[in-house]
Fold Glycosyltransferase.
Amino acid sequence: MNSTAKTHIVMLPFLAQGHIIPFLALAKQIEQRTHFTITIVSTPLNIHHLKSTTPPSTTTINFTDLPFCSSDHGLPPNSENTDSLSQSQIINLVDASQTLQPSFHNLISNMIQQHGCPPLCIISDVFMGWAINVAKSFETPHFTFITGGAFGTAAYFSIWLNFPHRKTTSDEFSVPGFPETCRFHRSQLHPLLRAADGTDIWSRLIQRQILLSLCSNGMLCNTVEEIEPMGLDILRKITGLPVWTVGPLLPPSLLNRSASSSFLSSPLNVSFSRSGKEPGIATENCINWLNYHPPESVLYISFGSQNTISSTQMMELAMGLEASGKPFIWVVRPPIGFDIKGEFRAEWLPEGYEERVSKRKQGMVLHRWAPQLEILSNGSTGAFLSHCGWNSMLESLNQGLPIIGWPIAAEQAYNSKMMEEEMGVCVELTRGLESWVRREEVERVVRMVMNKEGKGLEMKRKAMEIAEKIRDSVREDGDWKGSSLKSLDDFLDTVVLSRER
Ligand code: UDP
């Protein structure tokens, strides 16, 4: 038997940038701490991007693609990643990804023929829950890697599985597994979830993936034990599985605020430029602009790689930001109803807006995509107005930046709730696809957070405490190891022991 095969881990992320990035970061961590062989499996275009942004000289990780043609599944050609799809098309991609099962099965079977034994384990995404069937058929341990946080994932699982909002007429409700005092609100649910009843396509698909992932041998979660104790307690209780905390899985440039300049050459830089412009130049412009401003004075605004807001809300946000007088960098994506891949249109913003705020050096408007890691790790950035996607939250909290929440979809509203109520680092401005916030409220909240007085100051203090805990979790000092490193080593020992038994 070949010893490489004995320590071979196969990883299968969901087809979205926000999932592929932490999977690659997890693979890198395992690579650094062991002599294991790691193979990341995905569709051809995702593997092509991974290969072209991860120089072979920097890694021993293998990348393997499975045949996939998006147009066979009613998706636009070359759509192998949620980034290029509208919210309503994402369900088709989740559905289509299930068709990878037979070729994934063949891949594992070929690996066994080649090496004489199955991989040590398969680690797959929650949304690739079917991979557990393949693992089981080869009697290989299977682990689910949760790229989200513990509280948000626990709420997402419990609400999709139990539909607690359907059991009451009131707007507020409690969620199985959560303390009675931790109430949720109907407006925190995506309209699809509000309408779901267990018989529709969304419920069937999502419930199936969650239930499959509950049959795993355990879960890895992209969080830190010390920052989410309540969420982890609940997640462990409702899944009944061991949960190893292995976060924050961030690109290396973010582990140190002063080391940001290495990002563009970072092997983990898989965030592709959407602007069509030279990414290096766009980044340089941002950094120069940021460096012109005093420390912690700039608000960064982004709704992530998949979400956007309505055109009326975009106008209110624009006016509120301008009225606040605070400097800002804002990544503007096409508003709801416009082609997600379409060109920027000046009419989305008030007349003459971009020129006005740029001339005054108050605002920098970026079209579609920003070098987020560079921006967050620059000392002039003081806070983040975000859709509360978990990667963005870890990237921001790791820098000790408070958050203005504008959650839109998935588990974002639960992340925002936890960060506001538990961590005290966030203030939620508005929420949901049907959000309605006025410019005056935008102005008030931006001032409150950026002035760093009263509540704003308290948020900053708490964000710095969380940053300290996050950084400690991945620190090593002689024999002493931070909780996330300890947890990852414990996971790897457990997997090796299960093979030896
Ligand atoms: N991102 C970026 N530039 C952008 C928007 C997003 O680099 O203009 C990166 C961001 O740093 C993060 C990821 O894309 O790593 C977004 O993941 P997140 O979980 O925050 O949100 P999602 O896009 O999955 O909703």
Remarks:
- The CA atoms of residues 334 and 395 lie 24 Å apart.
- Residues 17-18, 21, 271, 302, 304-307, 331, 369-370, 372-373, 389-392, 395 surround uridine-5'-diphosphate (CB under 6 Å).
- The first strand starts at residue 8 and ends at 12.
